[in-house]
């Protein structure tokens, strides 16, 4: 580019050239800033964000069950039996429910306040609104105080009003369903069941108290995955033994020279817990590394 062209561009730079992106428009403009990429990794990151929200309720002690479903048309549904996202009017945005504010505004949520969540995964105050912004179909159902609240969105904008009806069942919880927007992900709208299944497994290993019900349309499940393990179309995932059970399952007790060295330390001021498993094997070429956090 010539110096003349650069000079011309600089001379025409004025206030009218400043673009202001409001709400969650920046997410659609530059999705890579929020999910890393718009390929397979970014696609599956959407799933992780919603699952982490459900896991936050588990870790906080308000939920113990999560349901995951992948439909034939690539809609993911995740349900938890936690407290349910708040639906009352937000004090700062009085014309909107807290639910709509959380789903349509960046940097909102209860995870900035340690009184609500001591620890949390995902993109604090960003994750669920990013998923909403990058989905051409997004629905939410919240059960709280004997009522079922529901609303639908498209590309981050509310398609319906928040509706409320009597809920005959007991308990509370949140159900999120979404389909990634093909305008963003182009030809990448194809979740890998095995990848989703393994992510769900990792959550159960890390937090033994949670039980996850996994289901996937049988058409999407291949007989053999890349790691030579089959992915079921329907099963329950629960590992009360945590990461110790994970190590024994993956390594096989017959290959271990001695009992694994397991330890657990709780950090001061409720800042989390550190767990570890170290095992010595007969086959020195075998390596297994697993790390994650909430």
Strand content: 15-25%
Give the number of domains.
2
Do you know the CATH topology of the largest domain?
A: Heat Shock Protein 90
What is the overall pLDDT average? 83
- Taking Cα atoms only, what radius of gyration do you get, to the nearest Å? 22 Å
Low-confidence segments, given as residue ranges, are 1-9
Task: Count every helix, treating DSSP H or I runs of 4 or more residues as helices.
Answer: 9
CATH superfamily of the largest domain: Histidine kinase-like ATPase, C-terminal domain
CATH class of the largest domain: Alpha Beta
* Structure class: alpha+beta
Largest sheet entry: 9 strands, mixed
What's the β-strand tally?
A: 11
Q: SSE order, as H and E?
A: HHHHEEHHEEEEEHHEEHEE
Q: Which architecture of the largest domain per CATH?
A: 2-Layer Sandwich
Helix percent reads 25-40%
General form: globular
Query: For this entry, what is the oligomeric state of its chains?
Result: single chain
Report the span from N to C terminus: 48 Å
Topology overview:
Layout lengths: L2 H9 L13 H5 L2 H4 L4 H20 L5 E6 L5 E5 L17 H7 L22 H7 L1 E10 L2 E8 L2 E2 L4 E4 L6 E8 L1 H4 L7 H14 L4 E6 L17 E4 L4 H10 L9 E6 L6 E6 L16
Parallel strand pairs: 1-8
Antiparallel strand pairs: 1-2, 2-7, 3-4, 3-7, 4-5, 4-6, 8-9, 10-11
Helix pairs in contact: 4-6, 4-8
Question: Could you write a compact summary of the structure shown?
Answer:
With 294 residues, the protein is of the alpha+beta class. It has nine helices and eleven strands. A hairpin with a 2-residue loop joins strand 4 and strand 5.
